[in-house]
Design brief:
Layout: H1 3-14, H2 16-22, H3 27-44, H4 46-50, H5 53-67, H6 72-77, H7 79-91, H8 96-105, H9 117-138, H10 144-164, H11 166-171, H12 179-184, H13 189-193, H14 199-222, H15 231-234, H16 240-247, H17 262-274
Length: about 280
């Protein structure tokens, strides 16, 4: 198995949505997209693999140095780093946004909450927006209009991901929810860590859903200006609206939320690929 095949297999296992979305991209660019998404898998699971902050920090620093060209031999022996390095070279892409993604993901290693709602938006921009943007660059259409769309799409995607991971995060006493939001709604963090979802928590989460909707609508408003060749980079965002619909329903259980069924996720991606105007709709 060569480096790019390794990346495709990793993404297929760990990020099924992006794996399926990439099947709608031109065949010649799929290996590069899988390299990008495999890198994201590696960075996003550092906490699970490292368990403690210090080993996690060491691993993230290794990736920073690999992307900066300081560990050429080691990077060449790592299939994801090697494939990503080849991708950056092939498409003339700088590693700056990926290093910024690594820096943002250092937050994952610790149990401190986000300070403000603005911080959660910045986290989304540096992680998911960067990923959408780099994918668009690979597909050949990373212009100013696309940058604005990926900014809003990434924030909405990140918020939904945080809400979906709430039970897992709270079980290990990790909190991505912003402190200013929790304090404004008088949410007791100890109740959350104990596995109890209060009415105050539900009210706070509805505010985050509203924020995600705002960014989703902003991306939808600019979608017509996006170069057609880049649309497959945005396909994972087709899952945001339907997921928010379930979170906004009367039976929403924030600590027992079940994601959309795999068959439905696949259908939503297929539907959006056939009709891109649905990417940012509920």
């Amino acid at each position: 198995m060569d480096n790019f095949q390794h990346c495709a297999a990793l993404v297929r296992e760990a990020d099924r949505d992006r794996y399926l979305a990439t099947l709608f991209a031109p065949a010649v660019q799929r290996d590069a997209l899988y390299a990008l998404y495999a890198f994201n898998v590696e960075i996003s699971r550092v906490r699970e693999l490292a368990r403690e902050p210090m080993p996690g920090e060491i691993r993230l620093q290794w990736w920073r140095e690999a992307l900066s060209g300081e560990r050429a031999e080691e990077a060449a022996a790592n299939p994801v780093a090697a494939a990503l390095g080849e991708t950056l070279k092939r498409y003339g892409l700088a590693a700056d946004r990926l290093i910024g993604l690594i820096d943002a993901r250092a937050f994952d290693l610790y149990d401190e909450p986000m300070a403000t709602v603005i911080d959660i938006e910045i986290y989304g921009i540096k992680t998911q927006s960067a990923l959408f943007g780099m994918a668009a660059d690979i597909l050949g259409g990373g212009d100013g209009a696309m940058e604005l769309v990926t900014l809003d799409a990434g924030i909405a995607y990140a918020i939904v991901g945080i809400l979906q991971g709430l039970a897992r995060h709270s079980a290990r006493r990790q909190l991505y929810l912003p402190l200013d939001l929790l304090n404004r709604h008088h949410v007791d963090r100890n109740e959350l860590f104990a596995g109890r979802a209060s009415d105050a928590l539900r009210t706070a989460l509805r505010e985050l859903c509203t924020l995600a909707r705002k960014h989703l609508a902003a991306a939808q408003a600019k979608l017509a200006s996006v170069p057609p060749e880049t649309l497959s980079a945005l396909l994972p965002a087709a899952l945001i609206g339907p997921t928010l619909q379930r979170m906004e329903g009367p039976d929403y259980d924030p600590l027992g939320f079940r994601p959309l069924a795999p068959w439905r996720r696949q259908w939503l991606l297929w539907r959006a690929a056939r009709n891109p105007s649905r990417i940012f709709k509920a």
